[in-house]
Specification:
Number of strands: 11
Shape: globular
Order of helices and strands: HHHEEHEEEHEHEEHHHEHEEHHHHHHHHH
Structural class: alpha/beta
Distance between the termini: 54 Å
Number of helices: 19
Strand order of the largest sheet: 1-4-6-5-7-9-8
Strand content: 5-15%
Oligomer: single chain
Largest sheet: 7 strands, mixed
Helix content: 40-55%
């Protein structure tokens, strides 16, 4: 009974922490104090910006530019709207959208709020004012533009900043980063930029995350951690984004070596480039989440006597969106060492090498079977065909539930082979410790999701060996924190890459399994088999639902390739 109670406490706590980490904050209303970010105030701008689609060259985009330039001037900024020619490739894409042979010029909006010392490098806030052809773009990138306007308003309310604040609202981002390319290729103000904060979206809600930085980010991330209350971001996302073919306006500046931070939210993916991406459909909590972080960071950058220079990349992550953890990559070796020593101490003279090997083999088998199941069930959902990109994005919430069911089915199925005694648990941790060592050696900024949970689990197991009561509390706490983080971690991984590579969910499954194993009681074999079949059947049912209903209403009217 005590084991079931401890397991229940750990699972409930983990779910609560996962919900906290994945839920945006409540939006501040229009009556919020003048010095704080208010999604309620920002929504007034979004309703004007996103009343209709406004692609480059359209009359609606000209109206949006007029509105934005007036708003920026009203806050004491000098405003310029330089034009440039777009590339032949961008012109062709626009012609495919508009069915017109006329190629309009690109028109950026550049605004400057003078600082007290104009010789200091400036802080640049950047978003794009154009939308795709078929979408009003309340999120992409109305949310980014409106967040900048509300950030400038809040900063201006506190008086003149120490250094210049430049706002760049680019044109033609949806045509291939055209406005950003024009600005950083020839605008004389580009040489004054010391750091960039770029705002983007790929969806209509969810947590806003700082997902990309410039190179050698150690000093910049130290400022980020000091300046932003409850920041959301990880060095793993920075590492992964380098490997992806995706790009934003910041890509142009990053290639030139300009330091920067890139923010986005990617929840409610069915609203990406969708006709239904209207102001009313936008998650105002996501807007609040992005805006409050950008305001905090911008204030920190503007107030810095000297902008941080280049320093070795740091390891960083938010703990459930509540606090920020950052350390030098070399500390990762110590974290892994503590985990290994903890598991070794727990297993010392408590079992045979055969039992350790059984634990390692069982964990590896679980991971492989779960990964294969995730892959095959995803194929049933249509991943192997020529499915529309936007349909797969819109299906992500269902694909996440599908992946969770496959993972649970695999775990229940393997329960009778997974050992719960000390030597077996240490053996199960061994393959993950080896994975952590490999990541620490080859990609240290991406190793923490493996290293930190194993440190918690190993130390808890070592305590449990010497004190059963205190040790059980320690194991419950480690499982609560680790499994809670893995649930949120898996959620974000599947949002980012799930439609194509759901197999990645097998990694957080394996880590969470090792942490919770000491609390799992025996389960009747027949009941376990029955439950795993039911869970797998539910997963297949969701996969068939996605396959047979592939076109989500939110994207059915928009067929332009991404």
């Amino acid at each position: 009974m005590r084991n079931w109670l401890a397991l229940l406490v750990a699972i409930v706590g983990a779910v609560i922490l996962a919900v906290v980490s994945t839920t945006p904050p409540a939006p501040a209303d229009g009556n919020a104090p003048a010095d704080v970010f208010s999604a309620g105030r920002a929504m007034a701008d979004i309703r004007s910006i996103a009343r209709a689609p406004h692609p480059t060259g359209s009359a609606e985009d000209a109206s949006v530019r007029a509105y934005l330039s007036a708003r920026l001037r009203s806050m004491g900024m000098t405003v310029d709207m330089p034009t440039a020619a777009m590339s032949a490739l961008a012109a062709k894409r626009l012609a495919d959208w508009s069915k017109s042979t006329v190629t309009p010029p690109l028109t950026n909006i550049v605004a400057v709020l003078p600082g007290r010392d104009r010789t200091l490098p400036a802080v640049l806030l950047m978003a794009h004012h154009d939308s795709v052809w078929g979408s009003p773009g309340a999120a992409d990138d109305g949310a980014g533009v409106a967040s900048i306007l509300e950030t400038v308003r809040a900063i201006k309310a506190q008086g003149q900043p120490a250094r210049d604040l430049i706002v760049l609202l680019t044109d033609g981002e949806e045509l291939g980063l055209e406005g950003a390319k024009a600005f950083f290729a020839g605008d004389p103000r580009r040489t004054r930029v010391g750091v960039i904060v770029n705002l983007e979206t790929r969806g209509g809600g969810g947590r806003a995350s700082m997902f990309e930085t410039g190179s050698d980010n150690g000093a910049m991330m130290a400022l980020f951690g000091r300046s932003v209350a409850r920041p959301v971001g990880t060095s793993l996302s920075v590492f992964i984004y380098k490997k992806l073919p995706n790009s934003t306006d910041y890509t142009v500046a990053k290639k030139l070596g300009v330091p920067g931070f890139n923010f986005a939210f990617i929840g409610r993916p069915g609203l990406y480039h969708s006709p239904l991406a209207t102001p009313d459909a936008l998650d105002q909590g996501a807007l609040q989440d992005m805006g409050r972080q950008v305001l905090d960071l911008t204030r920190g950058l503007l107030a810095a006597p000297t902008l941080p220079g280049k320093a070795a990349d740091s390891v960083f992550f938010d703990a459930f969106g509540l606090t920020f953890v950052s350390y030098a990559p070399a500390i990762g070796w110590l974290i892994l060492g503590l985990g290994a020593v903890g598991y070794a101490a727990a297993a010392w003279r408590r079992g045979t090498m055969g039992e350790v090997a059984r634990g390692a083999g069982s964990l590896l088998a679980l991971t492989i079977v779960a990964g294969l199941g995730l892959y095959l069930v995803n194929l049933v959902s249509g991943a192997g065909g020529q499915t529309n990109y936007y349909d797969r994005l819109a299906a992500i919430p269902r694909l996440e539930l599908q992946a969770l069911l496959v993972c649970l089915a695999s775990l229940v199925l393997f329960r009778r082979w997974l050992p719960t005694y000390e030597a077996g648990v240490a053996g199960a941790a061994a393959p993950l410790l080896l994975l952590g060592l490999f990541l620490q050696a080859t990609a240290p900024t991406a190793a923490y999701p493996v290293a930190v949970p194993l440190m918690l689990g190993g130390l808890a197991m070592a305590v449990k060996r010497h004190s059963s009561a205190i040790g059980t509390v320690a194991v419950v706490a480690a499982a609560m924190l680790g499994v809670g983080y893995m649930l949120g971690f898996g959620f974000f991984l599947l949002q980012a890459v799930g439609p194509k590579t759901p197999m990645i969910a097998a990694v957080p499954l394996a880590i969470g399994t090792v942490l919770i194993l000491p609390l799992v009681p025996e389960i009747d074999r027949r009941r376990a088999n029955f439950l795993s079949v039911v869970l797998l059947a539910l997963a297949l049912g969701i996969a068939l639902w996605v396959l047979l209903d592939p076109i989500a209403p939110s994207v059915a009217a928009y067929s332009t390739d991404h």
